[in-house]
Design a protein that fits this description.
327 residues; 28% helix
């Protein structure tokens, strides 16, 4: 098969479409013939040498895919060769074939084509696990999303609105904010021109956000705590703004607030399977009925992964960028 390899870390040109050995499914695994994968920011970090795959994972980038089951490993039940699926991966999505633990498979939801389904596993799993399973966003509460036009953001807007929450977003242009509004966002904040703490307080009569989903990290830590409501929950899932920040514990304690920080890739198989099962139960019906829809910015051939990485790095996209395994 062919896959995107990274012979040496570096810029987008470090991604090389090369012939590699076919993977073989082991106990509890399936072999998926890949139709498409999606580009995530973690892939850019891996390409640069800053985010190595966990031990035993595929060396190729790609944290999600869609495709058809080509073979079943020992001990797999409930799936058949030929089933159309999408999957949460630890790596290996930028390839023509990938091995997946059976607990990380999802059926392609109704109303979604096979290629578009590649946009769903990582964003739905990240949002559902952090915003709902950990931060317990409830109807009537306010969710603040940083990067509202990203793949994570466009999914989080829709899921939060589907459960009856109010949604505030930050984004870097009026055009991106307009797209967020189309998806249901209620409070629109241009982080290049406005202070999100002040704007959020104005829009919530001083209350702040009950839940914040943050992809920035250290740069926003102090401001996020200021933006939290009493009993608020800050869920950090990214470090685009650095890894070390100063935390005002007094402010956090006065608000009786909580901070969590998670990654999805390195979680044990059992935790990932539980998240995927929750996504299938709670999110898949919303997608199948059209209440929540995948947002895809563009689709490129997998051999042109370098171009996709440049596009993600430029930040001019809305939603997900997909790579198809065949030209």
């Amino acid at each position: 098969m062919y896959a995107i390899t990274i012979p040496e870390p570096g810029g987008p040109e470090a991604l090389v479409w090369a012939e590699v050995p076919d993977p073989v499914p082991g106990e509890g695994e399936v072999l998926v013939e890949v139709a498409a994968s999606a580009v995530n920011r973690a892939d850019l970090l891996q390409r640069q040498g800053f985010y190595d795959p966990p031990a035993g994972a595929s060396a190729y980038p790609g944290l999600e895919c869609s495709g058809r089951i080509a073979a079943l490993g020992p001990g797999v039940s409930g799936w058949s060769v030929g089933d159309e699926v999408c999957a949460l991966l630890t790596g290996g999505g930028y390839a023509e074939k990938v091995v997946v633990p059976a607990g990380q498979l999802l059926p392609v939801p109704g109303g979604v084509d096979l290629v578009t389904a590649a946009s769903l596993p990582e964003s739905t799993s990240t949002v559902w696990s952090n915003v709902f399973m950990i931060a317990h966003l409830r109807p009537g509460e306010t969710l603040l999303l940083h990067g509202g036009a990203s793949g994570i953001g466009t999914m989080a807007i829709q899921l939060a609105k589907a459960v009856g929450a109010r949604v505030a977003v930050t984004a870097g242009s009026p055009q991106k904010l307009a797209r967020c509004a189309e998806l249901g966002a209620d409070i629109l904040i241009d982080y290049r021109e406005q202070d999100f703490v002040q704007e959020l307080r104005k829009a919530t009569d001083g209350a702040g956000a009950d839940v914040i989903l943050d992809i920035i990290g250290a740069k926003y830590l102090d401001k996020n705590v200021k933006a939290l409501a009493v009993n608020g929950r800050l869920a950090i899932i990214g470090m685009q703004g650095g890894v070390k920040g100063e935390l005002n514990l007094s402010a956090l304690m006065r608000k009786r607030a909580a901070i969590t920080a998670t990654t999805l890739r390195a979680r044990p198989l059992g935790e990932k399977a539980a998240i995927v099962a929750a996504v299938r139960e709670h999110v898949w019906p919303l997608i199948s009925t059209g209440r929540v829809r995948p947002v895809v910015d563009r689709v490129l051939p997998m051999a042109e992964a370098a171009q996709a990485h440049r596009a993600l790095d430029a930040g001019d996209h809305v939603g997900k960028i997909l790579l198809t395994a065949t030209a």
